[in-house]
Amino acid sequence: MHTPSLADYMECIDRNDWQGVGEIMLSSVDKLAKAGADFLICPDNTMHQALPFVEPRSPLPWLHIAEVVAAEAAQRGFRRLGLTGTRWLVESGVYPEKLTARGLGYVRPNAAEREQINRIIMDELVNGIFNPEAVAAFQQLIGHLKEQGCDAVVLGCTEIPLIINDSNSPLPTLDSTRLLARAALRRAIEAP
Fold this sequence. Notes:
Layout: H1 6-14, H2 18-35, E1 40-41, H3 51-54, E2 62-63, H4 65-75, E3 80-84, H5 87-90, H6 94-101, E4 105-107, H7 111-124, H8 132-147, E5 152-155, E6 173-175, H9 176-190
Parallel strand pairs: 1-2, 3-4, 3-5, 5-6
């Protein structure tokens, strides 16, 4: 794993330039391949939108965060997942594609909820600000997802687990970052 500055990525994301995000990721791929990596991960859910530009040019295979989450959800018997994360992620096909491939349903928060979540992530959590109001907002959103038939919620942003987890969520959580880290560890141990 190699991580350039989030600010570099955000310049591209704000322009909806996913190919540009992919170019930054490919710069990291080159460094990691030269360093001897066997496979690659990206713990940032939102950046996975650039993988279609990256994977065809990547000399190394990727462990996809949404595939890992979908596999865990299927293994645990969940059938319909609520999606949380940045607005760029939640509005994308990153999770829907991987979930539907496993026969799983999903629910996206409505537009106002997506904006509220995005504001909390980008203005508060990324900056180390943890307010009780943010916790309450996520709990209310997850409760709304539960009312819509979700039986678990994807914590699709590295920062969300800083304020939400199984102990304070109305639904069981799927912490994408932890799940990816565990999958990467398993894969690294299995590598020849």
